[in-house]
Design goal:
There is one protein chain. This protein is of the alpha/beta class. It is built from two helices and five strands. It has a five-stranded mixed beta sheet, covered by helices on one side.
Length: 99
């Protein structure tokens, strides 16, 4: 898995996701790309957007929003990965913010 981090604030959040993916997949064979983008244009500091496509996962939000986005991504991971150690995620876009 390749994780592209745009600022030092995103590194802790990226580490959480990377450890979960590496635990559940063979990281040497992984061609996943995840980009974390700090965006301050959301109305709430806890808002985030996740876009999953066949090529990459893009996670956008403030530092707090990125944390919540990773929690949502972790919920998409299977509890018991198959013997193939392959994880398939749906191609989705998630936008979330507190009321």
């Amino acid at each position: 898995m390749t994780i592209k981090i745009f600022s030092i604030k995103e590194s802790k959040t990226a580490e959480i996701l990377e450890s979960a993916f590496n635990f559940k997949t063979d990281s040497k064979k992984s061609n996943s790309k995840v980009e974390f983008i700090t965006d301050v244009n959301f109305k709430s500091k806890e808002a985030y957007k996740i876009s999953i496509s066949s090529k990459k996962i893009i996670v956008t939000g403030s530092e707090e929003g990125l944390f919540y986005a990773v929690q949502s991504l972790l919920q998409l991971l299977p509890n018991k990965p198959s013997d193939k150690k392959e994880i398939k995620l749906p191609f989705i876009t998630v936008e979330d913010a507190p009321r």
